[in-house]
Amino acid sequence: MKQAIAQYVMVIMLVAGAYFLGVYKTKVDYLEKGATNPAQVAQVEGEQTATPTTVDLAAVKEKFDGKHITFGDKDAKVIITEVSDPSCPYCHIAGGMHPELNNTSTQFKMVADGGTYVAPVPEIKKLVEAGKASFIFLYAPGHGSGEVGTQALYCAYDQGKFWEAHDKLMTKAGYDLLNEVVKNDLAQSAKVVALMGDALDGQKLQSCLDSEKYTGQPAEDTAFVQSLGFGATPTFFVNDQVVEGAQPWSAIEAVL
Question: Which residues form the Thioredoxin-like fold domain (predicted)?
């Protein structure tokens, strides 16, 4: 029994779960119950799983089809893919907009707050906006309450306001809203619209959500990501190279 407990604790430490116990109720529940995707569940149960180190870049390029959240050209020299869930704590850590969460761990404490962690997503955004990399955002249910948030991201993308919506959802307010209030209930979408404030056209956003234009998008994204052999969030692809987890910007920069 003691050996089994020790093994379980080692797994939790490997995914940095021990840093977050007691911080937020939904996050605690998530870490105590384990992951929702097959690869992480197998890890917790002690099975050995092989995570691919490369991804099918040709398949990723096919998603530059006008139906997905993409920036730049599919034939760019550098294509960065973010597999994320706006309700996922580790995605928030990588997003760099939720210092209250980052600061619960010395590992993830950001430079601006006296730590050493440089969140990768803001740095990726800089490359994309400078035209130095193309980008694609894909949803996978790393925490499981991000479906309405993802629909909002697609609707915001229609307005040319993806990053504005992304940065709002990746705050503490966005995390609490998706996990404690919305919980994938589209009937609560007005609260997501309110969170955006004047960052984008709220009336258009509400109309888009009410139309259910993107209700199937989270499932479609998830199926595609899983077909590539992944599911954990966040995961980043730099062309065909894989960087898993909320690793610092230096891990992605090294691949670049």
Answer: 125-255
- Dihedral of the alpha carbons of 24, 28, 30, 33, in degrees to the nearest 10: -160
Structure tokens at 167: 């940065």
Going by C-beta distance under 8 Å and a sequence separation of 6 or more, which residues neighbour residue 13? none
Each residue's pLDDT tens digit, 188-228: 999 999 999 999 999 999 999 999 999 999 999 999 999 99
In one letter, which amino acid is 122?
P
In this structure, what token pair is assigned to residue 168? 């709002």
CA atoms within a 13 Å half-sphere pointing along the CA-CB vector of 251: 17
Pairing, β 69-71 against β 79-84: unpaired
Closest to 135 in 3D by CA, of 231, 53, 239: 239
**Cα–Cα–Cα angle for 106, 107, 108, rounded to 5 degrees:** 90
Looking at the DSSP bridge assignments, the partners of residue 51 are none
pLDDT (tens digit, 9 = 90+) per residue, 57-78? 999 999 999 999 999 999 999 9
Could you give the C-alpha distances from 183 to 37, 82, 146, 149, in angstroms and in order?
A: 18, 22, 7, 9
At the topology level of CATH, where does 52-255 sit?
A: Glutaredoxin (3.40.30)
* pTM of the model as a whole: 0.82
CA distance 209 to 222: 19
Closest CA to 84 of 142, 133, 123: 142
Query: Under a CB-based contact definition with an 8 Å cutoff, are residues 43 and 90 in contact?
Result: no
pLDDT in tens, 4-28: 444 433 333 333 333 333 333 334 3
Domain ranges of the chain: 52-255
Radius of gyration of the chain (CA): 18
